Amino acid sequence: MKKIYWIILVVFALLMGWRIFQSIRDKNSSSGMNPGRAGGAVTVEMEPVRNLDMRDIGRFGGSLKARTSYTLAPRIAGRLEKLLVNLGDRVSNGQLVAVMDDEVFQQDLEQAKANLAVSQAQVEQLRLAMKAAEGVWLTTKRLFEQSYESQGTMDRADAEYAAAKARYDIAMAEVQKAQSAVTKSEIQLSYTQIRAAWNGGGKTRLVGERFAEEGSMLSVNMPVMTLVDNSLVTAEIDIIEKDYVKIKAGQEVVIRTDAYPDKVFPGKLVRLAPVLSEVSRQAKAEIDIPNPEGLLKPGMFVRVEIIYTEHKKVQAAPVAALVQRDGKTGVFVADTEELIVHFVPVKTGIKEGEFAEITEPQIAGPVVVLGQDQLQDGGKIRISSRNGNNNSGEGKSGAKQ
Prior knowledge:
conserved putative lor/sdh protein from methanococcus maripaludis s2 fold; 4 domains; 6-stranded antiparallel barrel; 21 strands; elongated
């Protein structure tokens, strides 16, 4: 019985102790004693408002493509006998780059030339016959006019001369036909030599891809290789709807790529699609980038920066200082003498990196960048030691410069 009494006494004492502890904790909480406050003051960090050059920059990702790229393909079917260039080789305009088997075309040309020779011989033979018929016709005509030959003889002379001339004309047409066959055979024979040829652009190109090997059977227009001009590359990007109105042809552009992280490539926006896709609500834009050293390669991923607007020496505050109070955007400006803050509504302009342009009003004093979520207009502050003050809250502190 005595043991039970002591147990009840201990439980009672524990309950009373817990009640006292809760009472003290609630009192401290209601008096504002919590981490980050000293006597109701909020510990804050501040930053000065700066005068900076601010830029409104659009950032995009895109891929590079060559200024010009075209595929060489045969105009005739046949076996690829020899490739004269390799991947990455530089070729000149008109250079022979591949040869196809030409045996059949050589034979066709020889036969066409032989047919032409036969036709020319026939023409010469018929020309002599026509001249003889013409002589008979002239003699007969003269005698007929002197009444020494009859009308029937004159008619036969006319017919024979006309027939000889017709045979000669037909032979001449056969010569032209045979000459055309020779020309056609020569052209087809030339098609067995595949040459790099283009209009405009640079004097040389690079072999970008090879699609066939020696000995391959090629059909008409079957790709053999691709030639590219890398002296100027083009970046293709997609512009979203809200940025479209800020962009125009001729704008200067900055290009970066992971292949050369420390190098910046200048470019110019040269083409902008006049319509946006109904699906993506984006428009295509093309940027030309000079590439005299050939560092940039088609297919590379690039990061593109387009400067929409630039404002010189404007008032700028850290983005971290911007807060919302009663539906208004503003900053807490610190009075480092009185150790209080004032909420100042602001209008913002360009945002770049960690700073935002403050278009109005003029801000006098540092702004709070840490602890402002606990502040209200006129609230007390305690300046953090990071701003050059101790934790006592005494004295004043300048903002970080």
